[in-house]
Amino acid sequence: MRTDTPNGRQAGNYLVSDAQLLEESSEKPEKSGESADLANKSIIKAAALLYELGNHPQGASVTELARHTGLSRPTAFRLLLSLEQTSFVERLGTKYRLGWKVVHLGRLADPNSGLVNRIGPLLKALANKMHEAIGYGVLYGETALDLITEELPESRLFNFSHGFAYVGRDFPLHASAMGKLVLAELPDSRVKQLLPETLPKLTRFTLTSRRALLAALQQVREQGYAVVDDELEESHYALAVAVRNPAGRMIGTVAVTGPGQRIKQRTENELAEPLLKAAEEIGALLTRDN
Asked: Domain IclR-ED, which positions (predicted)?
């Protein structure tokens, strides 16, 4: 899902991600001052590798990781070896993936564990009502969106290639229902600053023109929900709505997803109505708890 941005850098979402920030920090020349003197470039590069491994749940080779992070292959190999010895990375044949220690630390540091517990029953009830997978994403700042949980209905067996395979991972904002909601909150002038004129093509249905995306975002604003239909993955359909605080600011998103052939047997309004009601309930619940 990576492609060249206008300035020649690589980015999966065309937004400033943690991986890009880490990469940029490791490439900047030394500056005078205490912070520059104290920064350890090897740790910054190792963190970039860990972040990139999060985009490869099935594992990635040294060559792939070096290419995506901008590190030399020998440097990437040396850092991966050290991370493997400390259980932050594990090696399976010629591929590396995140190790058990990352999972352990992630559970200790998870800022959304309480949130998931609070909204989980509501999402589960919605999944059972709609007989489809329901996911919830949290919005951080302007464009950082984290899909933190999903609930599956008890009435279906699911193929996760059509479910929320992006929980805890980055996904392209221009080709996801939740991402389109985030972009629709911004003025067109800001979207133009964030996105290039040509967007990465993930399937034959992906919107690759910024102009076409801006038109789609206007439709999102008017109808109150966002849709992706085969744009992220073939046969993948999702519809998402915004969760807002009392001031009207978007704080999260709730979405239904499933195989397009099945889920499109219902109209968009039939899908959006229960989601919009659930979004109101979640917003009220989070406001009351806070």
From this structure: 101-288
